[in-house]
Design a protein that fits this description.
The chain is α/β, with parallel strands linked by helices. The protein has 19 helices and 23 strands. It is 39% helix and 21% strand. Helix 5 crosses helix 6. The structure holds glutamine.
Length: 555
């Protein structure tokens, strides 16, 4: 039964002529599959094609929502509240499109769907197997996505590294799709080409082996992308073409650029966009218009003055947990000709009794502005509260995001409202003054991932506030991912102490934005503005925050 419906889907996709570009990665992880997928998207979109993107993650988690950010990086939240891989953030930022749950597929979701189907008797007594049942479920998702979104191109990034057994299910589904759709599918493989300093050579052997792994899975790449630190000599590229069986014209170099936009320009100069269209037999080969990205590159190049902004964080040592915030800060900086240097300070070290306490405080005091990002659990929260006190007392620009806003309000409750020991019940369930707490309706929900307010909600702005001035709109929509809320029982006391609640979710009367009118910029938001900042439109609150930091530095 299920096979028949796959056949029907295939027939419809053939009729629609939707083109799939599948991006796999080889040799090792972290070589930039997400960045490459975005770059291909930028070139096609700038040539006028309509497209969307899917990320397939081979892990068994249903979504990354419950994974540690240190292991998996940031959890990117879409408008519909899906908790997804951070690559979706790259796609949204670079392509200026909004994605949803159906752009994020994990092996966990596929197995969950197959097993739920089995329990419901969907497979009519059949023995359920990876092939055809699980592979068909993957194919079905990809095909339905193409039909639903009615785009010309669907880019599919396969997470992980070719050769890992985790990814086999996706590769098998792709192999079948390739058989069924022929040249409507293009296989792009990104591989790493190391440069050996001690011999001064680049080595293509890992790439050859990685392509062999693909071939074992029944896939021959149509184009190869060689990730490299320095330009690869033509001789080596030709060797790759010969040994891997890929046309020379379909091999591209992916160099490391400080500004990602330069990669778009470079790939375009290597003729990537034309080659893709050639593969798909387009009659007219369109040219990519990269003028916006050229302007953006000049903006970056003009940004010479540095701004030192601190992230008072729980996860130190990797930028991935805060990637959207860092990108939003940098973008806001470029539009004000500033190069934002992000200093990540371990919040815990700001607490008394810590070994590197003094160095951490020294770093904090040198900052031009302070940002406390979102987070869960109590580790480091007291350090964040201390950072908020410092910012408030010294008129240092402060931006609190989600947990960061809660921290700002805990600090204000203790220092200004006089509520000793005030806290969030997430941090101290027995606090006498639960200024941040669960809503009554949330208590008793125990299933992880099910009890959060997630996705876009409307927020009504209070006129004549810093937040309203930044947005310039009466109602805004922002994305959420949190459980706890400002306790309305304390709103009056806060207002008496000088705080202003400048944005509220009217349906449930929940605080969305809080600010101190007399401070240079001390503002907290319950939502995650970082997910909606793009190079084309920097987020208004990030811009206002960076502007306050620039002004302070100039004085
Ligand atoms: N832990 C807090 C809550 O659940 C904040 C969450 C966040 O910062 N994303 O409300």
């Amino acid at each position: 039964m299920i096979d028949q419906s796959i056949d029907q889907l295939i027939a419809r996709v053939k009729e629609m002529q939707t083109k799939f570009i599948i991006v796999t990665g080889g040799v090792c992880s972290s070589i930039g599959k997400g960045v490459l997928t975005s770059s291909i998207g930028v070139l096609l979109k700038s040539s006028g094609y309509k497209l969307s993107v899917i990320k397939c993650d081979p892990y068994l988690n249903v979504d990354p929502g419950t994974m540690s950010p240190l292991e998996h990086g940031e959890v990117f939240v879409t408008n519909d509240g899906a908790e997804t891989d951070l690559d979706l953030g790259h796609y949204e930022r670079m392509l200026g499109i909004h994605l949803a749950q159906d752009s994020s597929i994990s092996s966990g979701q596929i197995f969950q769907e197959v097993l739920e189907g089995e329990r419901k008797g969907k497979y009519l007594g059949k023995c359920i197997q990876l092939v055809p049942h699980a592979a068909n479920t993957v194919k079905q998702r990809l095909l339905e996505f193409a039909l639903k979104h009615e785009v010309e191109y669907v880019l599919v990034e396969i997470g992980g590294t070719v050769g890992d057994m985790e990814g086999d299910l996706f590769l098998e589904a792709i192999r079948q799709l390739r058989m069924e759709l022929g040249r409507q599918v293009m296989l792009a493989h990104l591989s790493y080409v190391p440069h050996l300093e001690w011999t001064g050579e680049v080595k293509t052997k890992p790439t050859q082996h990685s392509v062999m792994e693909l071939k074992k899975a029944g896939l021959v790449p149509d184009c190869l992308f060689l990730r490299t630190e320095q330009p690869i000599p033509e001789k080596s590229v030709e060797k790759v073409a010969l040994t891997c069986g890929v046309g020379r014209d379909f091999i591209f170099q992916v160099l490391t650029f400080e500004a990602l936009a330069k990669l778009f320009v470079d790939l375009n100069e290597q003729n990537l966009c034309a080659r893709i269209q050639q593969h798909f037999n387009h009659e007219e080969i369109k040219k990519a218009d990269l003028s916006f990205w050229q302007t953006y590159i000049s903006l970056i190049e003009q940004s010479s003055k540095e701004l030192n902004i601190g992230l008072i964080a729980k996860y130190v040592g990797a930028n991935d947990p805060y990637i959207s915030i860092i990108e939003a800060l940098k973008t806001a900086g470029f539009y004000q000709q500033r190069r934002v240097k992000v200093t990540v300070i371990d919040a815990e070290l700001l607490e008394p009794g810590q070994e590197e306490h003094d160095q951490a405080w020294q770093q904090l005091k040198e900052l031009d502005a302070i940002l406390v990002p979102g987070g869960f659990d109590k580790r480091g929260v007291e350090g964040k509260v201390l950072a908020a006190t410092w910012a408030r007392e010294n008129n240092v620009p402060f931006f609190g995001i989600c947990l960061g806003m809660q921290v700002m309000l805990i600090e204000a409750a203790r220092s200004l409202v006089g509520l000793e020991g005030a806290n969030s019940t997430e941090i101290d369930p027995k606090t006498k003054h639960a200024v941040i707490s669960l809503l009554d309706e949330q208590r008793g929900v125990t299933r992880k991932g099910a009890s959060m307010r997630r996705g876009a909600y409307p927020c009504t702005m209070q006129p004549a506030t810093k937040a309203q001035a930044a947005y310039g709109k009466p109602v805004i929509y922002e994305r959420h991912r949190h459980r706890y809320e400002v306790n309305n029982a304390y709103r009056k006391s806060y207002e008496d102490a000088g705080l202003v609640f400048s944005g509220v979710y009217r349906d449930k009367e929940l605080v969305e934005i809080a600010e101190f009118p007399d401070h240079r910029f001390m503002l907290g938001v319950q939502f995650h503005p970082e997910f909606c900042s793009t190079p084309r439109s920097p987020h208004p609150l990030f811009s206002a925050f960076v502007k306050a930091a620039v002004e302070r530095k100039q004085q």
